[in-house]
Amino acid sequence: MFNTFTLMDDINLHYRFLNWRRRIREIREVRAVRYQERYKRMLKNGDTLSYQGNSDEVGCYVAPRPLSKGNCYFEVTIMDTGVRGTIAVGLVPQHYKLDHQPGWLPHSIAYHADDGKLYNGNPVGQQFGPKCNRGDRIGCGIYADTSDAGLVTVFFTKNGKEVGSVVVPVAPDGLFPAIGMHSLGEEVRLDLQAEWGSEEEDSVMMVDSHEDEWARLYDVRVSGTLLEYVGKGKSIMDVGLAQARQPLTTRSHYFEVEIVDPGEKCYIALGLARRDYPKNRHPGWSRGSVAYHADDGKIFHGSGVGDQFGPRCFEGDIMGCGIMFPRDYVLDYEGKNITANQGRVENLLYLNDEDEEEGDDPEQEHEGRKVMVFFTRNGKIIGRREVVVPAGGFYPTIGMLSSGEKVKVDLHPLSG
User: Fold this and answer.
1) Which residues contact 371 (CB under 8 A, 6 or more apart)?
2) Mind listing the pLDDT tens digit for each residue in 311-334?
3) Where would you find the membrane-spanning parts of this chain (predicted)?
4) d(Cα 119, Cα 86) in Å, to the nearest integer?
5) How far apart are CA 399 and CA 299, in angstroms?
6) Cβ count within 10 A of residue 344
7) Are 161 and 144 in contact (CB under 8 A)?
8) 97-146: pLDDT as tens digits
9) Is 386 left (phi over 0), alpha (psi -120 to 50) or beta?
């Protein structure tokens, strides 16, 4: 009798163990399904998402995990706006229908790049923030400490600055990062591990952000003094351009760039360009510009064909560009080039008397005055080129064209 009960106990224990293993396997399978990203009419290549529909149907991506206290923010960089730029960034329930833009259906919310509107569970949006274009970063997050009674505060950012926030109900399974697209050619880069500080931290960061020093940024991301190329880098039309807000003057006549990362090809150009310079042209390639190119050491002066000028530049090299202004050169407040004896501002670096032009050239007077532009490499002048200053002045301009390129810029290395 004792042996019989012992045998039965062993059999029951064995079946209980098998049943326990089966349940563990089922739980793992459920979790695997639960934490699986979902997308439709999109191609995912690493962290890049591109629209694969016919522009009549929405493509949508939903991340595998919801935002949480430990991971409360994500960002999307617009690589290409495609035909219409109908890109949406927001939060949705786990089983959101993938043929609808985020924000259109109940319990979802999204910021739409093409019109700057906020869609909060409704296909009709409300004006919320600025429109977003190629190179812009759209962020979305939650203030985890504001969760109360099934509600949470969701906020959106553009290029690191908060656009606005809204209180929304939280779905039982949480709110999942989502991206929607709706036209050919649209492409974004997703960063589910992005970080964004509080308003106090952000205000401190903005003191040294240097973003206000740039008037034009195309396919270039600014982080302090660092410029990073975020374009496709697949053709010569994919130039990333950064142009300073202020032109070089007799008080600030020189700037420098340090190559932090040469990227795939080191297609980095440093130079000067007119204020309305084309955004898809490397500095030096088009009229009203001159530039020294790191990859081949050539100088380009308003032409797509360069002249051999100096050595090639690599990681760690510092490239500089400046203007040797004549003694009597003055830039007036409207940005027009004039010369005058009254109110003259002395320049630390100027042309010798024998270098100055003698006589008046009618064409030169119509287009602007000639100055000597010089370039440096690691603190040594490698050459100079006489050029005509365009109306409005010459603006420090940096071009990049291959993946991974990063430079550190100092627009005022001779000040202080």
Assistant:
1) 323, 324, 325, 326, 329, 386, 387, 389
2) 999 999 999 999 988 877 765 433
3) none
4) 13
5) 13
6) 13
7) no
8) 999 999 999 999 999 999 999 999 999 999 998 999 988 999 999 987 76
9) beta
